[in-house]
Write a structure and sequence with these properties.
This protein is of the alpha+beta class. It has one domain: Class II aldolase/adducin N-terminal domain (L-fuculose-1-phosphate Aldolase), CATH 3.40.225.10. Helix content is 40%, strand content 13%. It has 8 helices and 7 strands. A 7-stranded mixed beta sheet has the order 3-2-1-4-7-6-5, sandwiched between helices. A hairpin with a 6-residue loop joins strand 1 and strand 2.
Length: 250
């Protein structure tokens, strides 16, 4: 007799937050096919993490379907529900090496990827949103192909400084980390907005008005001290999804 499938209800708050972030990323047009991945550590060491299943579109991801993986399990890719191998290579490496990276979000969103294709992929502080990332991002200038094991480990090594929460992945896309889903998604959302502002400003061909280092740093700290903007944003996203009857929390 077949045993009934067990619905995974462990870490349900975290699962629902992450599923909502997937749905809203698609709503904002920051997804790409069935590629790109978000993960969230659920144990104290940061090595056990939730991640999206292989080949599932962001618009259909549900909380109970998220995979629970162990970054130290060498047999992960032999599982019948094995994750995307590039997701394992990148996210597994980060959760193995960077316990401060509780949540990891990687996308190939349009403006972030355009920025990643420029010879100088740094994001200068030209407005309030770009200032959020002043001295808080790193540019990977040594893209080595898809993020399988070795490439994932190389990227993880660039996130060892806890102050760095955003990696502009040259010739690739963007990766952001944070303590929670709310914090990380907020950073991802604002990075795409900031990159768009910068790219559009460059397209005018006119000189840019770049903030001084002093004002840029002051603004970045003000962003960091802003009272629960990220939490309120995710709460509103979930409320809007709930009002629409979305099945993200299922």
């Amino acid at each position: 007799m077949n045993q009934p499938t067990r619905i995974n209800i462990d870490h349900m708050t975290e699962r629902c937050d992450l599923a909502a972030a997937f749905r809203w990323t698609a709503r904002e047009g920051m997804h790409e096919g069935v590629a790109n991945h978000f993960s969230l550590a659920v144990n104290a060491e940061g090595t056990q993490f939730l991640i999206n299943p292989f080949g599932r579109h962001f618009t259909r991801i549900r909380a109970t379907e998220l995979l629970l993986l162990d970054a130290n399990d060498a047999a992960t890719l032999d599982r019948p529900d094995a994750p995307d191998p590039t997701a394992w290579g990148l996210h597994g490496s980060i959760h193995r090496a960077c316990p401060h990276a509780r949540c990891v979000m990687h996308v190939h969103s349009v403006h972030a990827t355009v920025l990643a294709c420029l010879a100088d992929s740094r994001l200068p502080p030209v407005d309030q949103n770009t200032a959020m990332f002043f001295n808080r991002h790193v540019v990977d200038e040594h893209y080595g192909g898809m993020a399988f094991g070795d490439e994932g480990a190389r990227c993880a090594a660039m996130l060892s400084d806890p102050k760095v929460r955003t990696m502009i992945m040259g010739n690739h896309g963007v990766l952001v980390i944070g303590e929670t889903v709310a914090e990380t998604f907020n950073r991802l959302y604002y990075f795409e907005r900031a990159a768009e502002t910068y790219i559009r400003a460059l397209q005018t061909g006119r000189p840019l008005r770049v903030l001084s280092d002093e004002i840029a740093e002051k603004t970045a700290r003000e962003w960091e001290e802003y009272p629960d903007l990220a939490g309120r944003f995710l709460s509103e996203i979930r409320a809007m999804l709930d009002a629409e009857g979305s099945d993200y929390a299922g």
